[in-house]
Design brief:
By secondary structure, this protein is mainly alpha-helical. It contains 16 helices and six strands. It is extended, with a radius of gyration of 33 Å.
Length: 483
């Protein structure tokens, strides 16, 4: 980077401005502990003020009264000011209390500061292996020659065959403690950096939202052109490189099989002695990824809500404009009414427009109610079979709820297709609808409208198939980090 670029960053970038602040250790220490180490994405103003009060009391008592003279709320107002950019102050939907969230600038400054600490162990082998793996994926993932791909696949197969033969012969190389620790450190660093990336992705989407709001507010052209602009920007979120990789990562997280595999591997790794002191927070890092991903998707949904509000406002404004034009015509007609000039004439073809709707239908007409007469009813002689009254389909929702609770005993979530594969449908479509409408205090039902799956069952010696959105049942769990 050139001198001019670095000079602009030093003056304008919030992260650099934070590192240059007089109270940078105090600000970074408090915000890093609350928002980054505890992985808090939103906190109420009253709770944050209370925690900052405790921090100020402890620091002033240890460093001397007057070291930090301001009140906690005053510090928060300074950090969330428009020209500072360290905290984002906002009001969540259906809430009249302000909430705070750290900006990506705090993530970057905190990561830089923590990287200055001396490390007792610096591993390089795992990162070198990662570099080679990435280069292979890029080189052979873009290869269009089938022969070249086959050569690479055969090479990898030969390596696997050699490794299998060595294991069968009793030669099983085990990772040394140093190699285990090296790979665990790289895994932990990548896992936490993903959370920081989520915060930056959410901030990028929020900037696009502000850009659209400003464009809608200042637009003076036609509504059609504005809709083209807005819809184009909205579509660019999901079609951009960042949007596609974000959606692919989120789909990977929602895969039940991947989550089960991730939890099992993480549990096995944390039992190893060679990794040193494990970070217990990593046991629930995938839940933090899901929460951060959902917040980023919620930010994207705000764009659609903004577009809907704009359309509603535009319809109201256009109706008002029509009424203003009609009033101008009426006022002009009244002003010309008493003029007796024969040259001032006007011909009106009709007093009202003729409207013919191609799909016009008559209004609803209630059916006449026929009174029931019970006189003259005699007992019938026929013997009727009452078994038809007992052949109605009744789906036991408690049975289905018990099935799902058993499935969620050993895992945190399970898909509908997997449940039905192990517990086939016995009562047809009614039982499938009951699965989709279940509610319980121990699990929640998550519908993914972007993906679909097919559910099959047998009914009257025929195979039935239904296409439904991907449904996942997730067990409610209480995070040890707090709500």
């Amino acid at each position: 980077m050139r001198f001019e670029d670095l000079d602009v960053l030093r003056k304008d970038h919030p992260a650099w401005r934070l590192l240059r602040a007089e109270n940078a250790p105090f600000i970074l220490g408090f915000l890093g502990r609350v928002f980054i180490e505890d992985n808090v994405r939103s906190i109420a103003a009253t709770e944050l003020v209370s925690r900052l009060d405790d921090e100020l009391y402890a620091l002033n008592r240890r460093l001397g009264d007057g070291t930090f003279p301001k009140q906690a709320k005053a510090y928060l107002d300074d950090w969330s000011a428009s020209g500072v950019g360290w905290l984002r102050k906002y009001y969540p939907p259906n809430s009249d209390e302000a909430h705070y969230d750290a900006t990506p600038a705090v993530e970057k400054a905190y990561a830089w500061a923590t990287g200055l600490r001396e490390r007792e162990f610096v591993g390089t082998e795992s990162r070198l292996n990662t570099v080679f793996d990435l280069l292979r994926q890029i080189a052979f993932g873009t290869e269009t020659d089938p022969e070249a791909r086959l050569v690479e696949l055969r090479r990898r197969r030969l390596e696997i065959d050699i490794e299998i033969a060595a294991v069968e012969a009793g030669d099983m190389p085990i990772l040394e403690p140093a190699a285990q620790r090296d790979r665990y450190q790289q895994f932990a660093s990548t896992a936490w950096s993903l959370l920081a990336d989520f915060r930056e992705v959410e901030d990028n989407f929020r900037r696009l939202d502000r850009k659209l709001r400003a464009k809608i507010t200042a637009w003076d052209g036609s509504k059609g052109d504005l809709l083209d602009e807005v819809l184009g920007d909205r579509n660019s979120i999901t079609t951009s490189d960042q949007g596609r990789t974000f959606q692919a990562f989120f789909d990977f997280l929602l895969s039940p099989d991947r989550q089960v595999e991730f939890v099992e591997l993480l549990g096995r790794v944390h039992t190893l002695d060679g990794i040193g002191e494990p970070d217990q927070r990593l046991l629930r890092v995938h839940h933090s990824w899901l929460d951060a991903g959902e917040r980023a998707q919620a930010t994207v949904r705000l764009l659609s809500e903004q577009l809907r509000r704009f359309l509603d406002d535009q319809v109201w404004l256009e109706n008002r404009r029509v009424m203003d034009i009609l009033r101008e015509i009426e006022a002009t007609a009244v002003a010309l009414r008493d003029i007796q000039d024969p040259d001032v004439t006007c011909f009106v073809d009709g007093t009202a427009p003729t409207i013919v709707l191609p799909m016009e239908r008559p209004l609803y007409r209630p059916v006449d109610k026929v009174p029931l007469e019970s006189d003259g009813i005699v007992e019938a002689d026929e013997d009727l079979d009452p078994t038809a009254l007992f052949e109605q389909v009744f789906v036991d929702r408690e049975r289905l709820r018990g099935t799902l609770q058993r499935e969620l005993t050993s895992r945190s979530q399970v898909g509908l297709a997997e449940v039905i594969e192990r517990n086939p449908i016995e009562q047809g479509l009614a039982e499938l609808i009951a699965y989709l409408s279940l509610d319980d205090t121990e699990f929640q039902v998550v519908f993914d409208e972007s993906a679909h799956e097919h559910i099959e069952w047998s009914e009257e010696d025929r195979t039935r198939r239904a296409r439904v959105p991907r449904v996942t049942y997730a067990r409610f769990e209480t995070s040890p980090e707090g709500p």
